[in-house]
Amino acid sequence: MIQVPTIGLSSLGFCSLALAASIFSTMAFYAASRHCRWPRAHRAGRLGREIGTVAAVASLWLWMANLGVGAGLVVMLCSWMAMAMLLPALAAWHRPHAHPAKARR
Question: What's the maximum distance between 2 C-alpha atoms anywhere in the chain?
Fold first, then answer.
């Protein structure tokens, strides 16, 4: 019988690591999008889709390892979408006039 290696984390450790991976994934996807209002993050986000996908899969795996398949999927998607809605609002609040509109003639 093959022994599957386990990670020696508590439930709080799994949740913290999964939430951090979910936030990192959302930030990577936001930095790669053309709607990113932070120029420095947008320039650094060239590999954002690939990095975001890897972090999302890691987050999903961590949530599922801690809570089970159904609950892990729901919690991962909820935390992911909450951060996806919060990032553009935070960017608009932080840099409200990042791209000023051109004056009409």
Answer: 77
Would you say how long the chain is, in residues? 105
Please give, one letter per residue, the 3-state secondary structure of 30-73. Answer: HHHCCCCCCHHHHHHHHHHHHHHHHHHHHHHHHHHHHHCHHHHH
Report which of 28, 50, 100, 79 is spatially closest to residue 36, judged by C-alpha positions.
28
pLDDT at 103 over 60: no
Kindly report each contact of residues 73-78 with a partner whose C-beta sits within 8 Å and lies 24 or more positions away, as own/partner. Answer: 75/18, 76/18, 76/22
Alpha-carbon gap, residue 88 to 10, rounded angstroms: 33
pTM: 0.76
Alpha-carbon gap, residue 31 to 73, rounded angstroms? 24
